[in-house]
Fold this sequence. Notes:
This protein is globular. An 8-stranded mixed beta sheet has the order 5-4-3-10-6-7-8-9, with helices on one face. A two-stranded antiparallel ribbon has the order 1-2. It has a single domain, classed as Beta Barrel (L,D-transpeptidase catalytic domain-like). The chain contains 3 helices and 10 strands; from the N terminus they run αβββββββαββαβ. It has helices spanning about 1-10, 95-110, 150-160, and strands at about 10, 20, 25-30, 35-40, 45-50, 70-80, 85-90, 120-125, 145, 160-169. It is of the alpha+beta class.
Amino acid sequence: MRAALLLTALVTDGSGRRLPPGSIDRIVIDKSDHELVAFDGGGGVVLRFSVAIGSGGNGPKRVEGDGRTPEGVYRIDSRHRSRPFHRFLHVSYPNAADRAAFRRGLRDGTIPRGARIGGDIGIHGAPRGPLGTFHKAVDWTAGCIAVDDEEIEELFAAVRPNAEVEVRP
Length: 169
């Protein structure tokens, strides 16, 4: 029943236009501009949101706990409700390039032995608590991409399974 409701739900793009489920097949996140842009199957921009990213500063994610948001091309590989973040679109980090860079770092000593590559990266809503509606004023996540709750609702309903996610520096 829940899947049927999700499939019949429609969302708007802020201009009143309705986005059918599965209409977003590509998302580009520009970390330096703090922007998420969603595209439809024809390559047209359908949504544009400001975002908060990882608190770890510039550069790609290297290890679990570094607070950085990964950079590269990924997929939306699952989705779920999230108690702390409203909705969660899981991103397929780490990809093959991330794993290769991690192994190189272990070999050359730039990544300490015993470190883990991490995972559980996604696009999600605002945190519960003191940041609330001001959560985009500072980069606060552990490596995820955060949007407002209303925005994750739009994405959650309109992003097709396995949609591409490109995260740029």
